Amino acid sequence: MAELATEKHVRYILTVEKRKDNFESVVMEHLRMSGAYWGLTALDLLGKLDSVDVDEVTSWLLSCQHESGGFGGNIGHDPHILYTLSAVQVLALFDKMDVIDVDKVTNYIVSLQNVDGSFSGDMWGEVDTRFSYIAICCLSILHRLDKVNVEKAVKYIISCKNMDGGFGCTPGGESHAGQIFCCVGALAITGSLDLVDKDLLGWWLCERQVKSGGLNGRPEKLPDVCYSWWVLSSLTMIDRVHWISKEKLIRFILDCQDTENGGISDRPDDAVDIFHTFFGVAGGVPLIFLLVFYSICCAKSCHLGFPCLIWEPPHLF
Ligand SMILES: COc1ccc(S(=O)(=O)N2Cc3cc(C#N)ccc3N(Cc3cncn3C)C[C@H]2Cc2ccccc2)cc1
Ligand SMILES: [Zn+2]
Fold it and tell me: What is the pTM of this model?
């Protein structure tokens, strides 16, 4: 089996972080906070977070904070719940939560909850179950979940559940793996997974695996590395991850690597980017770990009888 080209991916991530003037950096300028989260978390998963100047990143991150307490995607950009979570996740990664006023950030998130329990992404009011997950995940990291109406938030998420067991952006919206991750993740954090039909949803999710071993986001769509994360993490949270072939998925992710210049693409032979490098590593590393761990357990289980643990992925977005 081809290996994860760890050193190459670390070098790729560090060069993307430093590049400022090329096309990709300009296109991504408005979401640089999320790009920082993707790159830094991938580096941490690869065991190389120590190659980053934490103080430099932290001072840039703080310069993106708005007086409302929310964070923008870059300096001078309007605050949005997306980038507020990314900023809090980076600070959690650095273990530097003390550099922000937690109650101020909390108040920004609380201000985005609507009367029906849903969350908007910013002051312009767009509602999406993605924002429900982002709000609940962010407040959970800040230990301030009690500051929002969790019961109504859960009720709104359940109102977006479909007949196929999946979830959409809003009530009646089509089931999509990204939305399912957000809704299942929010229900997991709030201890409400009993409201999910695990077999019905597990069936919809395991059907995402196509012949090549990759996972797609909806029926009939092409496989894509980032769905390795949305689908795999959802299956793990509802204890149905054994319903897909891990070996075939690992093969697909490893085939999406650029083993020469580093980075991982959405599917084999496409251009790599920081987003798919992050989700490829986030989906691949635990899988490879699980496979190795399972084989050790199985090899030893005759004497030790270890129950094989399911690796619980951290809440990544
Ligand atoms: C290069 O064109 C794009 C297109 C969209 C975006 S985006 O809206 O900011 N965004 C993040 C994203 C980042 C990168 C990178 N580097 C690449 C793609 C990509 N997509 C698009 C995508 C990925 N798989 C298939 N598709 C079509 C997801 C999207 C939405 C999203 C944001 C945060 C968390 C999850 C999902 C950025 C760049
Ligand atoms: Zn993708």
Answer: 0.91
